[in-house]
Amino acid sequence: MILFDIDDTLVNHKQAQIRAARLFLSQFNHLLPHSEDEFCALWDSVLLKYFGAFTRGEISFLEHRRHRIRELFAEVNPILSDSEADARFEIYLRSYEDSWTLFDDVLPCLSALSGHRLGIISNGNTDQQKLKLHRLELESRFEVVVISEEVGVAKPNPQIFLEAYRRASLKPQGCVYVGDNLEVDVLGSQSVGMRSIWLNRTGTSSTQVNVVEINSLLKLPTAV
Fold first, then answer.
1. How far apart are CA 1 and CA 171, in angstroms?
2. Terminal Cα distance for the chain, rounded
3. How would you label 177-191 residue by residue, b for 16+ Cβ within 10 Å and e otherwise?
4. What is the mean pLDDT of residues 18-30?
5. How many other C-beta atoms can be found within 10 angstroms of the C-beta atom of residue 100?
6. Which of 1, 15, 69, 99 could form a disulfide with 85 if both were Cys (CB 3.0 to 4.6 A apart)?
7. Average pLDDT, the chain
8. What is the pLDDT confidence band of residue 9, given thresholds at 50, 70 and 90?
9. Mean pLDDT on 38-52
10. Can the peptide bond before residue 78 be classed as cis, meaning omega within 30 degrees of 0?
11. Distances (CA, A) of 46 to 1, 42, 140
């Protein structure tokens, strides 16, 4: 079975995030004195901070959204009610969801792999990640879908990878995992004995050895 990450592997999450963050800033630029580039960098750092807390089980997905909004507006609106924070996040969320797109290499790759069993292992909120697969018409292509919120552990925790091959009724050696994050995806899956392929779209350098690396999913069918 070949298993994939979702964000920035299949779905261009980074592009959708930037588009939505820029729209968000345009709605609140009277309160947030940042250039677009400054705000996108700030948005990303706040996301990583609280999404990490969510994946570690320290806060809920809803709480992680509220924390992000409250930190962004802390100087000008030090006290935001839950309803105010939710309403502001909804402005971002609508644009983010409307901006979901697949990378151009995804559908050709999946078509070339049509003779293989395919699956998903993704960190995130169960409903949101499954909605991505549904809206982008991918859900029927994957036999196994494992989302961190659903199983209570997140990559690189070995248990999420073990859960995937348990559902597939396979041993780790019978699975290949493909993801864009070297530590979370590649080293995490390698820790349970899976073969791993690093989708390095950005050409990031690394000193890691024994890592199979590709820069496009078009190269995956010959790499597995």
1. 10
2. 10
3. bbbbbbebbbbbbbe
4. 96
5. 16
6. 69
7. 95
8. very high
9. 96
10. no
11. 35, 6, 34
Distance in angstroms (rounded) separating the CA atoms of residues 159 and 145: 14
Buried b / exposed e across 13-42, counting CB within 10 Å, b at 16+?
beebbbbbbebbbeebeeebeeeeeebbeb
* Residues counted in the chain: 224
- pLDDT bucket at 22, cuts 50 / 70 / 90: very high
pLDDT of residue 28: 96
Q: Which amino acid is at 181?
A: N
Taking a C-beta distance cutoff of 8 angstroms, is the pair 218, 105 a contact? yes
Indicate the SS3 state at residue 15.
helix
Three-state DSSP class for 183?
A: helix
State both tokens at 20.
Answer: 């939505």
Distance of CA 101 to the CA centre of its chain: 13
Q: pTM, whole model, 2 decimals?
A: 0.94
User: Which residue in this structure is represented by tokens 């990378």?
Assistant: 103
Query: DSSP letters along 34-93, please?
Result: --HHHHHHHHHHHHHHHHHHHHTTSS-HHHHHHHHHHHHTTTT-S---HHHHHHHHHHHH
